[in-house]
Structure formats: structure tokens, C-alpha cells
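Risk register update: the risk of archive-format incompatibility is retired. Evidence:
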Amino acid sequence: MHILKYIISISCCFIFVDGFSQKQKTATKKDTIIYKTGYGFRLGADISKPILSLLSDSYKGFEIVGDYRITKNWYIATELGIEEKISDEDYINSTSKGSYIRLGANYNSYKNWLDMNNEISLGFRYGFSVFNQTLNSYTPNTGSQYFPVTTITTPQISNGLKAHWTEFVIGIKAETFKNLFVGFSASYKIMLSVDNPTNFKTLYTPGFNRVFESNTGFGFNYTISYLIPFVKK
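Archived output:
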């Protein structure tokens, strides 16, 4: 009788241990599930510039955007574009036309759930532009009601002007469909150096936008881009 009780007790013990072991294995399997996201090159365009080109007679522009994911949170990023802008100020009308590149990096501070791939990013850029500046017309501010002055309309063209600047960028990107992203970003720009035509100040620099007296500026873009995944990590 005692032997039977002993055998039953041992059997119950084995059943309990085996059941507990199975639960631990199941829990371990659940805990080791890894959700991978795509690492690759993302290419797109700033859709605001073509829209503005259609709506405004004084602006034409196009910009390509791209980034490459190098770690979980860091991306190498760049923007390349062309712009032509007519600036109509008091006494002066001028046209800036040229190309530019901005190169830097973004850090994604957003913690995604499971397999989500959205971004709230902080970034930095170095910008460089080569452009032409045309003084279309100007009115000397030296006249009076007795000696009126006339507007000079002979264009004065300055070629091969250059500008360098830095940018601090904040932006968001959301994956609306598989590998398709829409985004928005805003930037604060600081001009490092810019060439000015003789006897005339550069009012607008392609890629930098309007140049204020403080040599600072602002920028915005609205992008659609597509991720070409090379690997998943």
C-alpha cells in the first residue's frame, strides 16, 4: 500500500514538472519572436514644388529626396533639386536660377510597435548651391517729384555664384502602404557664405530659399517616397 502511494506521488510530480516545462517552452517561444523591418534605399520627390510651379508664375522647381538606413535609428539623407525664382522687391526685380544639394543624416526618435515603420526624425544637413542671378530691373531711389527717375530694365546677369549653409531639420514619415511613405519636414537654415553680384545683394538662393538680413532662412517639404528594401533586420 505504501509502495502504491509512493508510486502515485512520484507520477504526479513528473506530470507537474512536465506541464510546467511545456508552459516555459511556450513562453520562451513567444518571447523570442522577432519582427524585422526593411533596410534599403528610399527614393521620392517633394510634391509641393511641382504644385507651386503650376500655381505661381514666379516659381519653378523640382526636388528629389532619398535616404539610406544604416542602423535601427540612423539614416543617411540627401535632397537634390533645381529652382528658378523671381523676387519682386521695392525698386528691384531679380531672378535666381540654379541647382543645389543637401547632404546629412536623420535620427528616428519614434519607437515603432511590432512591424510598424514610421518616423519622427531630427536631422542635420550641409547645403551647397550653384546659381545665376539676373537683375531684371531696378529703380534708383534718388528721385523726387521735381526730378523723377526712370526704371532701368537692362538685365544684368551674374553667373557661377555659390552658396554654402547648414540646416536643422525635424520631420515625420508614415508608411501608408507597404514600403510607400508620405512625409513632411521643416528646417531652420543658417547661411555660411553666399556670393553677391556687384552692387547687388542675393535675395534668393536655390535650395536655401529667401535670404533674410540675419543670413537665416526656413524651408518646408511634403514628400512621397518608396523604400527599396535590400535586407531585413
